[in-house]
């Protein structure tokens, strides 16, 4: 009898799950309210396509985001793209291209992959090393009219056949236990010279014969200044190895024929900066290098017989320079700044220093990209020209990671690759129209009389009527404002007036994003186009809990007309290490008047920052800053008076991951009108056993509509709604005492701490489980994902906190007089797919049911109803739970394809998910960011506040009109009948 009951329960559960998960789109709705943009990341390796049929039509790029991609030159679109793991396992050490061969080397040689250049399909894959912390290198050679690939890992030199990746020979290199990188090149006698780097100690020089026999004598040279990031190069003569030492500001040269000691060449002729490095060799000058001394200065230096360097040429105010061998000539191409909005490409013949006019270009270039840092020219002969004059296609990289393509004095396209490094997101409401803003003045002030208010009302309505008449005339005449657009325009499109005006349901917003390279963007949510952008080169992110972070806050919204809205980004100054504040208008992107265009240096290191709740007389919320000496600061300083006059006590806490202590403080106004900081509690989280990996509070914009939960017996289970509750995640390893155990066992813990009093509300530990732990903290519940190492699967846990069936205080919550310890309900569920990130939906009033937006590692974005993660789901349903509508418990959370809000628009390597309310209570806006960005709308409780698209207005209108007519007729008939009855 038990089996039929169990089958019925499973059947009912599946029906319930699918009934709440059916959120699929119709085919014509795809792409209507959502958009997706794909990116590559900061360029690491770059190659022009050299295949005969596609030469110069595509480029191959390897990026810092572990992406290999092919980009079409004519429009900048991605022809194909291969994304690898964001961890060390997917790191790209080198991308090699020659002819039709395209090879990527990953993670110190753990993976070597050969790709089909036209399609991006994998031809073969080889695993050579397990030392993922080292760096591998490689190059192509030709032997007996066959192509071979030389790969140098930390311990072995391999020769692979390019047709199938099979091993031709391998050579075990000396000192493989300490060397992290080998520089290898082929000599004229087909042998190989190899220089190994042992960071902080020495370099090792050895040779390998053409058939893979390693020389028995390896020579070691002390080099305490060298590390794996030091810029080094083997000279063109294959007899010298040169490195730049930033510690001594000198070039270190080692002769490879007579290995003795590094010879030093001090660089005293020109100032050096943090950008100083060796960029490459200079062909056509013998043994020469190209050295970058500053962002706008390049130096060509020639090696002398005494194994020192002399300056051959200094290129001042030059961002990038390349020497290209074309038509048996060495041509020097330089990229300089012509004016604030123009770059100049100049070409000179190296033999006679004459300028080549045909290759000169003036390239439009906006100031908000920073200076160019590297260019990649492609020279070709113009086939349509009888004299075969040279032409040039130019791709260059700017400081903000953007990729630009220019040809024939035009900038044809660019890719904003900084959007692959988004750290913080805000969605800002658009301002109302000018006529709607006038409604604020209609009621006037207390000093104005009735006639003045009436005059303002007439004036506002006349303005509306005039605007409506102009709109009707424009529509009748078919008149539209057209602006000439050329393909070389690099500025953003001037936004139409309606693009910057709030729509009826407040669905269109400005998505403000702050990125790791210091670029700030304003993106139109309904189109995905960039509305504005600002570049702050001195702005770098904080680094906490092994992650990068920029604080982005909205100090004043668009609701306070005529005051302009104000956003502020808080980061770190790259020059001083102090806090850096940048304030701007989030709608237009303009830096606010009186604020520095490159940000405001606070003059101190920032440990903690939080926005105040109270506004000043200009409706501006101040930002409280705590420096490294636990001193108090306010930005802007005018908000300090608000803090002094406020009767509310202000509390904050600091967490030190290095010591494992969480400390609570209180701000107290003293007698002198200043603010003192008082330490009030301290919590030790046992740094020796575990490490703090995350801190999660509740979102300030979240509204809680219901104070409790109605049970099946009509009683109410009241929620534990502590606004000061903070969730902490710690991870560690537990040493097993048993001799059977094979090492430490991972675990993680979740602490729920009151941020005002330091009271530990709840603590839970998951043994034999590990992170990364993703946490969503909302209302009275916490949802977190983790990896269960015991069962080798991903799981989702949920905690719900309740006060009980009696509420201690129905008006406000006080941490100093808290209710009794909450009732904590908990449950875990099996989740079939690993997770990138999670976030809960947010709506205007909090009435709509909650959904959890989950970015899956399979590429989907899942909208999962919170009801499926209810810890009260019963194993055996009772009449009370059925009356309540609780879904029966099943350990597995099924994935419904209809619940994937991005359908077939897969997104990978997701860094975060951001949600924002819309003007409609039923709708929540979702923004997913990472190597791709994706935007859409979700309706967790369906669109209960909007009529459906297929609503039959004609039929309903006809029925209503008929009912009105019938009501008048029946009213008349009833009156006649009543009159006749009265006469009887």
TrEMBL record:
Signal peptide segment: 1-22
Residue span(s) of domain EMC1 first beta-propeller: 25-417
Pfam family membership, one: EMC1_C
Its membrane topology: Single-pass type I membrane protein
Example of a GO cellular component annotation carried by this entry: EMC complex
Subcellular location: Endoplasmic reticulum membrane
Membrane spanning residue stretches: 953-974
This protein's UniProt keywords: Endoplasmic reticulum, Glycoprotein, Membrane, Signal, Transmembrane, Transmembrane helix
Principal place of residence: endoplasmic reticulum
Top-rank taxon, per record: Eukaryota
Ranges where the ER membrane protein complex subunit 1 C-terminal domain occurs: 778-983
Gene Ontology BP terms: protein folding in endoplasmic reticulum
Oligomer and partners: Component of the ER membrane protein complex (EMC).
Family: Belongs to the EMC1 family.
Protein name: ER membrane protein complex subunit 1
Taxonomic lineage: Eukaryota, Metazoa, Spiralia, Lophotrochozoa, Mollusca
């Amino acid at each position: 009898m038990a089996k039929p009951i169990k089958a019925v329960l499973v059947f009912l559960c599946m029906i319930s799950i699918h009934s709440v998960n059916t959120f699929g789109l119709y085919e014509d709705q795809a792409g209507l309210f959502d958009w997706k943009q794909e990116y590559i990341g900061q360029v690491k390796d770059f190659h022009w396509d050299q295949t005969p049929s596609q030469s110069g039509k595509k480029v191959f790029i390897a990026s810092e985001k572990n992406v290999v991609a092919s980009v079409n030159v004519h429009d900048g679109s991605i022809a194909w793209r291969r994304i690898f793991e964001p961890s060390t396992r997917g790191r790209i050490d080198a991308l090699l291209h020659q002819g039709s061969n395209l090879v990527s080397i990953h993670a110190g040689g753990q993976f070597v992959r050969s790709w089909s250049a036209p399609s991006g399909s994998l031809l073969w894959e080889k695993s050579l090393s397990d030392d993922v912390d080292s760096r591998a290198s490689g190059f192509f050679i030709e032997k007996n009219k066959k192509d071979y690939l030389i790969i140098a890992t930390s311990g072995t030199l391999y020769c692979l056949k390019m047709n199938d990746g099979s091993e031709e020979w391998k050579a075990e290199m000396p000192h493989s236990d300490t060397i992290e990188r080998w520089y290898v090149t082929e000599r004229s006698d087909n042998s190989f010279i190899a220089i190994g780097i042992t960071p902080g100690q020495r370099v090792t020089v050895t040779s390998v014969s053409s058939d893979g026999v390693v020389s028995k004598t390896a020579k070691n040279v002390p080099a305490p200044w060298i590390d794996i990031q030091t810029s080094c190069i083997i000279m063109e003569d294959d007899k010298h190895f040169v490195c730049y030492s930033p510690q001594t500001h000198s070039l270190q040269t080692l002769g490879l024929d007579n290995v003795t000691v590094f010879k030093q060449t001090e660089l005293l002729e020109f100032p050096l900066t943090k950008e100083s490095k060796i960029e490459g060799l200079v062909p056509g000058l013998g043994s020469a290098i190209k050295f970058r001394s500053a962002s706008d200065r390049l130096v060509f230096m020639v090696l002398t017989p005494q194994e020192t360097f002399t300056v051959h040429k200094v290129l001042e105010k030059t961002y990038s320079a390349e020497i290209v061998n074309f038509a048996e000539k060495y041509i020097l191409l330089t990229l300089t700044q012509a004016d604030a909005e123009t770059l100049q490409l100049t070409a000179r013949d190296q033999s006679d220093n004459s300028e080549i006019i045909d290759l000169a270009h003036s390239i439009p270039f906006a100031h908000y990209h920073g200076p160019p840092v590297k260019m990649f020219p492609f020279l070709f002969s113009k086939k349509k020209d009888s004299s075969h004059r040279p032409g040039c296609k130019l791709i260059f990289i700017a400081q903000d990671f953007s990729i630009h393509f220019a040809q024939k004095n035009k900038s044809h396209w660019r890719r904003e690759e900084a959007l692959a490094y988004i750290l913080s997101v805000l969605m800002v409401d658009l301002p109302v129209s000018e006529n709607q803003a006038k409604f604020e003045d209609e009621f006037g002030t207390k000093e104005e009389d009735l006639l003045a208010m009436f005059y303002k009302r007439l004036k506002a309505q006349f303005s509306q009527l005039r605007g409506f008449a102009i709109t009707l005339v424009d529509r009748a005449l078919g008149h539209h404002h057209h602006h000439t657009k050329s393909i070389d325009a690099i500025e953003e499109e001037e936004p139409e007036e309606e693009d910057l005006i709030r729509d009826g349901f407040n669905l269109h917003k400005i998505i403000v994003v702050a990125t790791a390279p210091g670029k700030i963007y304003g993106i139109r949510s309904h189109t995905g186009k960039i509305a504005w952008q600002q570049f702050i080169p001195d702005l770098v992110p904080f680094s906490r809990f092994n992650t990068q972070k920029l604080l982005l806050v909205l100090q004043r919204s668009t609701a306070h007309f005529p005051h302009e809205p104000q956003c502020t980004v808080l980061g770190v100054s790259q020059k001083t290490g102090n806090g850096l504040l940048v304030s701007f208008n989030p709608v237009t992107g303009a830096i606010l008047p009186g604020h520095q265009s490159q940000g405001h240096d606070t003059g101190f290191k920032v440990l903690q920052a939080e926005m105040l709740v109270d506004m000043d007389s200009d409706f501006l919320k101040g930002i409280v800053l705590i420096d490294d000496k636990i001193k108090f600061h306010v930005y802007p300083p005018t908000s300090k008076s608000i803090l002094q006059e406020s009767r509310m006590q202000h509390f904050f806490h600091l967490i030190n991951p290095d010591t494992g202590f969480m400390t609570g403080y209180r701000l107290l106004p003293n007698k002198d009108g200043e603010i003192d900081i008082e330490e009030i509690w301290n919590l030790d989280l046992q740094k020796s056993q575990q490490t703090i990996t995350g801190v999660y509070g509740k979102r300030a914009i979240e509204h809680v509509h219901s104070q409790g939960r109605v049970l099946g017996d009509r009683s109410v289970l009241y929620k534990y709604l502590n606004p000061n509750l903070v969730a902490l995640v710690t991870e560690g390893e537990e040493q097993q005492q048993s001799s059977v155990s094979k090492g430490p066992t991972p675990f993680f813990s979740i602490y729920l701490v009151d941020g005002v009093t330091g009271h530990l509300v709840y603590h839970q530990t998951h043994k034999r489980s590990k992170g990364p732990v993703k946490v969503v903290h909302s209302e009275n519940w916490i949802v977190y994902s983790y990896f269960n190492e015991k069962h080798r699967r991903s799981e989702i846990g949920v905690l719900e906190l309740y006060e009980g069936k009696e509420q201690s205080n129905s008006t406000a919550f006080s941490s100093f007089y808290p209710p009794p310890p909450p009732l904590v309900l908990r449950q875990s569920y099996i989740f079939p797919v690993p997770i990138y990130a999670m976030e809960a939906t947010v709506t205007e009033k909090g009435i709509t049911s909650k959904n959890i937006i989950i970015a899956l590692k399979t590429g989907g974005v899942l909208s999962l109803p919170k009801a499926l993660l209810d810890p009260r789901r019963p194993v055996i349903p009772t009449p009370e739970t059925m009356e309540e509508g609780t879904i029966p418990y099943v350990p597995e959370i099924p994935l419904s394809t209809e619940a994937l809000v991005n359908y077939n628009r897969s997104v990978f390597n997701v860094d975060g998910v951001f949600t924002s309310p819309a003007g409609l209570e039923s709708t929540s806006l979702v923004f997913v960011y990472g190597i791709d960005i994706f935007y859409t709308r979700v309706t967790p409780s369906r669109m209960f506040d909007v009529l459906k698209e297929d609503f039959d207005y004609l039929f309903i209108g006809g029925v209503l009109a008929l009912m009105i007519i019938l009501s008048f007729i029946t009213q008349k008939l009833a009156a006649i009948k009543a009159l006749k009855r009265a006469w009887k």
